[in-house]
Design brief:
Blueprint (H helix, E strand, L loop, with lengths): L2 H12 L1 H35 L4 H6 L11 H9 L2 H32 L5 H12 L3 H25 L16 H25 L3 H9 L4 H12 L1 H17 L2 H6 L8 H6 L9 H21 L1 H11 L4
């Protein structure tokens, strides 16, 4: 663009018509952003307001504020959903599962991006293929594999005289270890793809210089690669964390004991015969929503910084 054209644009912006056009454009932009913000916030506000209504008032007044507030709905939802047991389980699964995905993805991404090996391409390709597999296609094979692994290990331990009944041995089914293993495995394909592509953008000369100085690969990973990868690690954690927190289908087939279940399974109890108890049902949904909402409110600056940094390599 020529200098004359730029000068003409600057002069136009200083005119009355130019200022009016700029003001209209800004107003339209704010209106559009406000509309989408309202679409995101309103359902949460509606859910919170209706969680304080009685069933009768909800039937008559679905949109307005409650005439009489019923905070007891939360007490009832907490007790009926066994949230005192399920909430700590969800926190444990989410924290440990996210940490496992982030750590293993960073290690794998470094290996695939910067280390050699004949099988590297095939292994990386297998993880990329895993991104395309839907959750529903994995549920039955996963359950059958878990059951077969437990039975095989139980049979071996029974033959060694370590357990009495091989059918009673469980390493993967109905165990926290099995839940964490499944969550980490299901989150790794996308996480490894993202970290590998990000680390590919880091100059290989940094790794080579560290090797010349005598640094081990572990030292290179912890001192060189990991600090540079903070943005993509943040992005992976942001994607993984709500996925594990809200996950329902997998834990529903690999866990049967109440003491091992997570919050979504407790919220499921408010369907069926309890679906008409709207106040407690909405209160249960708010209880399940609040931890993630508080997390994003508390760390929104770090999340925004991490996502924007993870979008740009180098």
């Amino acid at each position: 663009m020529s200098t004359a054209t730029l000068d003409a644009e600057r002069r136009f912006k200083t005119t009355f018509f130019g200022k009016a056009m700029a003001a209209v454009g800004k107003a339209v932009a704010y209106a559009v952003m406000g509309f989408f913000a309202l679409m995101a916030v309103y359902p949460v506000l509606w859910l919170g307001i209706n969680s304080f209504k009685s069933n009768a008032e909800y039937q008559l007044n679905k949109m307005g504020l409650p005439q009489e507030w019923f905070p007891i709905n939360y007490k009832g939802a907490w007790e009926l959903g066994d949230f005192s047991i399920l909430l700590p389980n969800s926190i444990f699964y989410t924290v440990v599962g996210t940490a496992g995905v982030v750590l293993l993805a960073a290690l794998s991404g470094f290996a695939f991006a910067k280390l050699g090996g004949k099988a590297k391409g095939a292994m990386y390709g297998s993880f990329v293929v895993g991104i395309m597999l839907s959750l529903s296609s994995l549920m039955i094979p996963l359950f059958l594999q878990i059951s077969q692994f437990d039975l095989s290990i139980g049979t071996l331990l029974h033959a060694l005289g370590l357990v009495g009944d091989p059918m009673s041995f469980h390493l993967f089914y109905n165990t926290r270890f099995g839940v964490i293993l499944v969550y980490i495995g299901s989150g790794l394909p996308l996480a490894i793809y993202m970290t590998t592509e990000y680390i590919k953008g880091i100059p290989t000369a940094l790794v080579e210089a560290a090797r010349i100085d005598g640094a081990s690969y572990w030292r290179i990973f912890t001192s060189v690669i990991l600090p540079i990868c903070v943005p993509i690690i943040t992005t992976v954690a942001i994607i993984t964390l709500p996925g594990i927190w809200n996950e329902f289908a997998l834990i529903n087939i690999i866990v049967g004991k109440l003491e091992l279940q997570s919050l979504p399974l407790g919220i499921l109890r408010f369907s069926g015969s309890r679906a008409a108890d709207y106040g407690k049902q909405f209160a249960a949904l708010v209880i399940g929503l609040m931890p993630m909402l508080l997390f994003y409110v508390a760390f929104h600056k770090q999340i925004t910084k991490g996502v924007s940094g993870g979008a740009v390599k180098g």
